[in-house]
Amino acid sequence: MVDQFLLGLSVVLQPHILMYAFIGVFIGQLIGVLPGIGAITAISLLLPITFHLDATTSMIMLAGIYYGSQYGGSIASILLNLPGTPSSVVTCLEGYPLAQSKRAGLALFVAAFSSFIGGMVGVAVLVLAAIPMTLIALRFGAPEYAMLVILGLLAASLIGTGSQIRSFAMVVLGIALGLVGADATTGYYRFVAMPELADGISLVSLAMGLFGVSEIIRNASRRSPPGPALSLAMRDVIPTRAEARQLAFPIVRGSSIGSFFGALPGTGAAIASFMAYAMEKRVSSTPEKFGTGHLPGLAAPESANNAAAQTGFIPTLTLGIPGDAVMALIIGALILNGIIPGPRLMVDQPELFWGVIASFFVGNIILLLINIPLIKLWVLLLRIPYQKLYPVVIVMICVGVYSHRTSVTDVVLTLAFGVLGYLMKNYRFEPAPVLLGFVLGPLLEDNFRRTMLLYSGDFTVFLTRPISAVLVACSTFLIIFAIWSSTSVRRKSVQSIP
Amino acid sequence: MFKKLLMTLPLTVALALPAAAQDSFPDRSLRIVHGFGAGGNADTVSRIMAEEMSKKLEQPVVVVSRPGAGGTVASGYVSKVDPDGYTMQLMVGGHAVAAALYNSLPYESVEGFTFISTLGQFPFMVAARAGEYASIEKMIEAAKAAPGTIKIGHSGVGSTQHLTGELLGLRTGADFIHVPYKGGAAASTALMGGEVDVIIDTGTVIRGQAEAGVYDILAITSKKRWPDAPDLPTVSETVSPDFDVVSWTAIGMPAGVPDDIADRIRSEVHAALELPGVQAKIAALGAKPGGSSGEQLKALIEGQIAVWTDVIEAAGIQKR
Amino acid sequence: MQSTDQDQPSVARRALSGSVLLAISLAMLLIAWGYPVGTLTQMGPGFIPLVVGFLMCGLAVAIIALDVNSTNTAQAEQIHWRGLIFICAAILIFAALVDALGLVVSMFLAVLVSQFADDQVRPLTALIYACLATLGGWLLFILALELPIPAFWR
């Protein structure tokens, strides 16, 4: 493995390939910052360039855009509460409160650093365990996915700061929103009020509305509170020794969770970051600090989603099967170069296979190096008065959402979700569980129904298949734990009342 | 601008700017609209064509993705825009399927368009895990011996892949379970993991696995053997005479485009299809590149609408 | 908004948010009632919507019960009407105009209108700022990113 990795490094370190790797991560990072314009738009814009490049270089550049945009997505989430992807929703939960308490620099540093570690762990897993991970991923059939999603949804209802029943209701609301559109199994139109909704509500609309627009409605007429000016000194950006110590284990746990879930084709990164967050909240001795700008709650999901972004390449590279739309684009670049992606890629094209993996290693280092100096620039952005910032952000959201599907309906829906998100927050409902329910709900329905079709309506299949049984056990444990802890919290709060 | 800057980087790209345009059409940018997500095959083909056509037409050709409802949102949009020749649509086999599958469409599938040319045609392949079935005949025999046990994974209800599977069952009398997945990649994973027994999909999904010895390609769905893979038996010569499914991509425009403009676009499409680079890219996507006249394309679409209408009715697939 | 009793909102007020959720779930059940339910093996498109609808109903009732009985329910914040109205107007203007008039006009008007969400805005400053922001947006979206959106009407 190490020899082959060195072969890969020798490929990447050629100057022209290194340049394209840099271009990829840099553009990915910049475009990831723009709300609503994600990796897919960036990659499809740059796809024609790859017509003139060889397969290895194209793949390295496109992959760079992909994981570069993960870094960029965290920046918009921390500074402006604008999550571009489901996985950066979790980043908003702690990152945005940190920015509001004038600690944006620290939040950005922690996010960049934990992303870097997560990415590196992901690369290590890719190098050392790509084949075993592939075999595990192949054992995930419909029943396993259904149970995994249930586990993810339970984890999501634990992440809110308020009562768990309210969070769970929001998860269910998210699932309901995810039902809109043509049913995946029969094609039947459900809740389709207009033809534009036939493919469902766009995730970008929902995320930008619930988080971005609602926040702007709340703050547009509000003066920024007087307080200490944002500090640009490096010592205020780097965590203190005590804070750093607090972060070590969350990053390790986040990276492990991310590496594992990322390898499952589908929505690995989103589940991974929510699970990492829920996990931190569970093991923390101070769960009440979550949601107020708690660093471990930022570090764990950040490392998880970047680890997942790297191990997400496992099925793509080892089997030639793209895990999501972005991977499909990257595979498309391979096909256009006359390389048929498949299990033989590793054997037939070792320079390409290992070159791409080594480029992740190099790319993550580049990203860390360009991110640290950029922190000052981003923090400077927050010195612009909010009254000047929000009109521009509104337009960026509009353009981003519109460009996604060239759909005016999506823009109007973004506004509707903005108003909904604003009212929800006023009535102590959290938006984050809605989003996870929305992402995972269709996956649950799809796999549950497929299980029933494949196993003729037999529920015991969930318990007789080993991986599925383990997941059921985890979910059961989570429910028992939630009930136990909520009763013990009530007892505690009763005692604390004088 | 990013794109232009980067385009100048590869030394292979000669940025020879063309001389002044000789006639008035086109005097501004053109669009190729398609109804699928960025990055799908439709998007890629659009971009390949857009790049070559913009060189010839000396105007930018912009690719616009208007996904929704199996491509029908884009078709509805294109059929209603001003037929001034500046808006093209990249059509795929789904255009004919949609005409058969939907109860009401916001456009006329044939009358609503000016057909320009096909870009390429591609067959589907029937594949199983290596060693599972010796041939397509054996697979059909096994399906008949145990009705309702063999599972065919497909890339979504109402996809051409799905309807091809239904057609195979109808024509051979075998009783399959058709299991829907979200896209060919997911169906392929399911075949590999043993959740389904057979998949029917395009060469891009299947050939890599077949070359690695993971899958056996049992048969190909075109009526005659495919020039790229002459060793593969066809469904028509083995289990179902006259079985013929090929999908296609094509360029269309809204109805009412002036003839001279339609001819101009058609000749540019044909010229682009002659280029070896374009041919190689389209072939890499699993299609056999080839242009056609507008009438040929119209006849192809009308024929397919008839076939799929029958299949949907016979298989009892719910119309939308 | 007559929020006279800051500490103890009325029962109706405390039950408001749960009731809205209940209304949403009932509406959902009503629509989904007509969808084919199918069997457990061959589930129809109506199966899951009904399950989700009933689940949401149950949760909404539970939330109402908890909110009504809870003594320390914090009063909901005052609604920021000015922000709400002008932000809505800005986005709706963008949505209404972008297809017909292109990106530049719709961006300009959206920036201009959204600035009035702030009650201390000065019209001239807003106008100048909208011009600048539109220029920036044109540079970014049209020139740099080449998004497939027309800059002007055609």
Care to describe what's here?
- The complex is a heterotrimer of chains A (498), B (320) and C (154).
- With 498 residues, chain A is an all-alpha fold.
- Chain A has helices spanning 2-12, 15-33, 39-50, 55-80, 86-100, 104-138, 142-157, 164-179, 203-219, 234-237, 241-262, 268-283, 295-311, 313-319, 325-336, 345-348, 350-381, 386-405, 408-426, 432-454, 461-464, 466-496; strands spanning 181-182, 189-190.
- In chain A, helix 5 packs antiparallel against helix 20.
- Chain B is an alpha/beta fold and 320 residues long.
- Helix content of chain B is 41%, strand content 19%.
- In chain B, strand 1, helix 2 (41-57) and strand 2 (61-65) form a beta-alpha-beta unit.
- Residues 11-22 of chain B have low confidence and may be disordered.
- In chain C, 34% of the residues are buried.
- Chains in contact: A-B, A-C, B-C.
- At the A-B interface, helix 3, helix 15 and helix 20 of A face helix 1, helix 2, helix 3, strand 7 and helix 7 of B.
Give a brief description.
Chain B has helices at 2-7, 41-57, 72-80, 94-101, 136-145, 160-172, 184-192, 203-211, 235-238, 259-274, 276-284, 294-315; strands spanning 30-34, 61-65, 87-92, 113-123, 125-129, 151-154, 177-180, 198-201, 215-220, 246-254, 288-289. With 320 residues, chain B is of the alpha/beta class.
Keywords:
heterotrimer, A: 498 residues, 1% strand, globular, B: 320 residues, alpha/beta, five-stranded mixed sheet, 11 strands
SS class of chain A: mainly alpha
Coarse morphology of chain C: flat
Helical segment count of chain C: 6
Helical amount of chain C? 55-70%
Instruction: Specify the helix fraction band of chain A.
Output: over 70%
Record field, number of beta strands of chain A = 2
Q: What fraction of residues of chain C sit in β-strands?
A: under 5%
Give a topology summary.
The complex is a heterotrimer of chains A (498), B (320) and C (154).
Chain A: H1 2-12, H2 15-33, H3 39-50, H4 55-80, H5 86-100, H6 104-138, H7 142-157, H8 164-179, E1 181-182, E2 189-190, H9 203-219, H10 234-237, H11 241-262, H12 268-283, H13 295-311, H14 313-319, H15 325-336, H16 345-348, H17 350-381, H18 386-405, H19 408-426, H20 432-454, H21 461-464, H22 466-496
Antiparallel strand pairs in A: 1-2
Chain B: H1 2-7, E1 30-34, H2 41-57, E2 61-65, H3 72-80, E3 87-92, H4 94-101, E4 113-123, E5 125-129, H5 136-145, E6 151-154, H6 160-172, E7 177-180, H7 184-192, E8 198-201, H8 203-211, E9 215-220, H9 235-238, E10 246-254, H10 259-274, H11 276-284, E11 288-289, H12 294-315
Parallel strand pairs in B: 1-2, 1-3, 6-7, 6-8
Antiparallel strand pairs in B: 3-10, 4-10, 4-11, 5-8, 5-9
Chain C: H1 11-14, H2 16-32, H3 47-69, H4 81-101, H5 103-114, H6 123-144
Helix pairs in contact in C: 2-3, 4-5, 5-6
